[in-house]
Design a protein that fits this description.
Length: 286
């Protein structure tokens, strides 16, 4: 029954997309809200008429891309309409769609997903032009960094680079813990702090609360390592070092995080792919 419900929701929605147009009142309300949101944002960043004028051709290109994608999607839906109608009849009768219908639906979904990803990548390339039109201060309000799925190649390169940084920091931490562990009793008392100071000074400014807190964490880690047998240490050295790096806050992030207090890439995508944003820009440009 769950599988039937899954197909029913898709089939009904797809057929409605082909045959049903939104009501005028819904369009008018949505348009008014979109214009108000765009105008409020542009006023907040102090967008100048000359900047709005420069943005217009860029946003026109973005919305041309959106229209082309939408038209292509509607064409794909029209092509599979007989299959969708057949699937609806089978679902109404309490039956699963035929295997052929399931394959057609799966193929459409895959094509639509790929087309959407292609569109988002094309829009992201245009975002670079919008970013160049705005001043540095204005751009502080926006995070133009796309989701990793939009720029997979760059994301993979960044992740590989972050992994290399992380491994380097883990190996460095392991070396420091290893050197402290194998100090004799006298040097453990006298040399541990200088060794840890040299290590932490790579990442923290001495004589700061952050440095003192990091020192407490490092001392606790060396106390733990000191109690391990040699076999336990050799077996778990990298894991323990990774825990230390993580606790010190030195592990580089593997995923892109949105800058706090900024308008996200996804919100910017919704803004500039909305036709009402172009209406607002033309009004601001005079």
């Amino acid at each position: 029954m769950k599988s039937c419900a899954k197909y029913a929701a898709f089939v009904i929605t797809a057929l409605m997309m082909i045959s049903v147009a939104p009501t005028a009142s819904a369009d008018e309300l949505g348009d008014a809200m979109a214009q108000a949101d765009a105008l409020a944002l542009f006023r907040r960043i102090g967008l100048q008429p000359s900047q709005a004028q420069q943005m217009i051709p860029v946003v026109e290109r973005i919305q041309d891309l959106v229209r082309q994608q939408r038209q292509a999607d509607e064409q794909r839906l029209r092509q599979i309409r007989p299959t969708l109608q057949q699937a609806r009849s089978q679902l109404v009768a309490g039956q699963m769609p035929s295997e052929q219908a399931q394959r057609v639906i799966a193929s459409y979904r895959e094509q639509r997903q790929q087309a959407q990803l292609t569109l988002m990548r094309a829009v992201d390339r245009e975002f670079a032009n919008l970013e160049n039109i705005l001043t540095r201060q204005q751009n502080q309000a926006f995070d133009w960094t796309p989701p990793e799925s939009v720029n997979m190649e760059e994301s993979m390169q960044r992740i590989l680079q972050q992994q290399r940084v992380a491994m380097g920091r883990i190996q460095r931490a392991a070396e420091v813990l290893n050197s402290v562990k194998h100090l004799d009793t006298f040097n453990f008392v006298t040399a541990r702090i200088p060794i840890l100071t040299d290590y932490l000074s790579l990442y923290y400014r001495p004589d700061t609360p952050e440095f003192e807190q990091a020192m407490e964490i490092a001392i606790a880690a060396t106390d733990q390592v000191r109690l391990l047998t040699e076999e336990q240490w050799q077996t778990n050295a990298l894991d323990i070092a990774a825990d230390l790096v993580e606790e010190l806050g030195l592990m580089p992030p593997m995923q892109v995080r949105q800058r706090p207090g900024t308008v996200s890439w996804s919100a910017l995508y919704r803004l500039f792919t909305n036709e009402q944003t172009l209406v607002v820009l033309r009004g601001l440009a005079g």
